[in-house]
Amino acid sequence: MEVIQVTADQLASSRNQGYISKTYSLSQLLWKLSQDLLEEYEKNQGGPLWTPGYPPSPLYPAGVPQPQSATWGNGLNDEKLLQHNFIACISYSCYLQVVQQQQQELNPKATSLHTVLETVIQHMKTLMHNIETIMVSMNFTVPKIDQPTLPNSNSHSGSFQQKLLGYRICLGCNLWLERTVKDFALLASRYPSSF
Amino acid sequence: MKSWVVLCFCFFQTVFSLTQFASISPQDPVLTIGSSLTATCVVREEFSLEAKTLFWTLNGKRLPAKTYTIVNKTALAITLQHLNGSRQQSGDNLVCHSTEGHILAGSCIYVGMPPEKPVNLTCWSRNTKDLTCKWRPGGEGETFLKTKYTLKYKLRWYGREKECDDYNLGDPYSCYIPRDLALFTPYEIWVEASNRLGSASSDITTLDILDVVTTDPPSDVHVSRVGDLEDQLIVRWSSPPALKDFLFQAKYQIRYRVEDSMEWKVVDDVGNQTSCRLAGLKTGTVYFVQVRCNPVGIYGSKKAGIWSDWSNPTAASTPRSERLGDSVCDPKSGEQNSTLRRELKQFFGWVRKHAYGCNGMSIKLYDQWRVWLQKSHKTRNQVLQGDKS
């Protein structure tokens, strides 16, 4: 019987490959779902939320560079890449829950919208778990984030502002997920999977 | 797992204040159909936009300039008359634009009617354990505005008002009370409808749980031949298990049909028995049979009770007649043999797949196969009709 010796680093590396590969696939799925969410959201707000040629700006989380900026990708090491994605993932998960609350009040009968929103939120949670697991297994620092208090989202803004905000969040999430797909494609190439 | 970002909400507020080029008042007005509205868009002075350059849209459609009024250098008003019901329950989007089309501010208008009182409130209890109620919205139905329905109930002679909280999401006009219901005492039940323009209550329905009881279909329904009698079958069943000790006065009903027909015949006068003989049937014919139960008189109730669902169909065939005519003894050459052969092949295939534990062939096995065939044809037709829709 042949005995194959594997070091702890090799074992951790192989686990990372599996997680990175899976997370890459998950990010691709999420990106597609976020496009569906954007379409479904716009369809259910009762008319255009923006004029052609003047689209609203996406909502980006504080604490991370914007997804189209040059700071992402080649300029960042793996740890920073993962940390930024982690923070952005948590932020958008939080924002989407607020959108969900708002839409439950504004559009309670929009079943398709609520279904895709819930699906995206659930997958975002999985993405967070995966990114955290990868960071831990690679001995990277996981950013510490305090317990949030989800707001009463209807308290201060008019309905139109809520509709517009939700659109900007969905747009920002879609653009950021496009970024995540590219980042995990890069990580997958740096840690090619043999499984 | 790490927790969430704590400053989500504060961040939202900052973002809002940075992107507000103008403001519209009133915000989110609620109006009845046919009324008028004057809204004003006020541009923030630092943006140097003149009111005369602005325009309005409603749900994306540009509104005519003749409805505008310039209030001052930075404020443009619009008057909308004879408003129709809102196009969507999230409100119609009234938006103020700069001359190039850039959105400066928006307000959602909610136009509808106050609800009418809900109607047709009916309730039933399954085995005296729970209560399900359903109703319909009054008048012409939904009022263009999001309407909330609350089912309320209280014991007529004592007790406090309670609200049902298990609303069936598949049906917006029903609610389910799963437990803690009193028997032998009347309840008052009603539905309250409310939206942003008002509220209305249905008439109060008074009932004792025991008067609106339904139950499960009878169990163990069997149909079999009566010896060699060619025109008879006997149906036997058991009382629904949940109430079997209390169904002294329960009524049963049987319905049956021939295999290739959708026309049911109903036997109404079965009474309280748990078996019944069907007579006057065609010989050599497969019949499908179902039974249902009405728990009338349960716990001494004087009311009619509510029929259960029909039991799953079960089938049997009457014996073929011994008197052979030419048409039976002289099969058309080739034709009947191939039909019979095909049918036998299908039957044996089914036996191999579904009845491998059974000992030997029997007419009962054949009848079970006919039931299965009927169900699978029905399912296939439903799928095909679903594909066509």
Provide the fold topology.
The complex is a heterodimer of chains A (195) and B (389).
Chain A: H1 8-43, H2 78-106, H3 111-137, H4 159-190
Helix pairs in contact in A: 1-3, 1-4, 2-3, 2-4
Chain B: H1 8-19, E1 22-25, E2 30-32, E3 37-43, E4 55-58, E5 61-62, E6 68-72, E7 75-80, E8 92-97, E9 103-112, E10 119-126, E11 131-136, E12 148-155, E13 162-163, E14 174-177, E15 187-195, E16 198-201, E17 205-207, E18 213-214, E19 219-225, E20 233-238, E21 251-258, E22 265-267, E23 275-278, E24 286-294, E25 314-317, H2 326-329, H3 335-354, H4 363-388
Parallel strand pairs in B: 2-9, 10-18
Antiparallel strand pairs in B: 1-3, 3-7, 4-5, 4-8, 6-7, 8-9, 10-11, 11-14, 12-13, 12-15, 15-16, 15-17, 19-20, 20-23, 21-22, 21-24, 24-25
Structure annotation, total helices of chain A: 4
- In percent, how helical is the residue content of chain B? 10-25%
Order of helices and strands of chain A: HHHH
User: Would you report the number of β strands of chain A?
Assistant: 0
What's the helix count of chain B? Answer: 4
> What amount of the residues of chain B lies in strands?
25-35%
What portion of residues of chain A belong to β-strands?
under 5%
* Mass-distribution shape of chain B: elongated
Description:
- The complex is a heterodimer of chains A (195) and B (389).
- Chain A has 195 residues and is mostly helical.
- Chain A contains 4 helices and no strands.
- In chain A, helix 1 runs antiparallel to helix 3 and helix 1 packs antiparallel against helix 4.
- The longest helix of chain A is centred in the first third of the chain and has 36 residues.
- Chain A is elongated, with a radius of gyration of 19 Å.
- Helix content of chain B is 16%, strand content 34%.
- In chain B, the strands form 6 sheets. Chain B has a 5-stranded mixed sheet with strand order 2-9-8-4-5, with no helix packed on it. In chain B, strands 12, 13, 15, 16 and 17 form a 5-stranded antiparallel sheet that branches. In chain B, strands 1-3-7-6 form a 4-stranded antiparallel sheet, with no helix packed on it.
- The radius of gyration of chain B is 34 Å and the shape is elongated.
- Chains A and B meet through helix 2, helix 3 and helix 4 of A and helix 1, strand 8 and strand 9 of B.
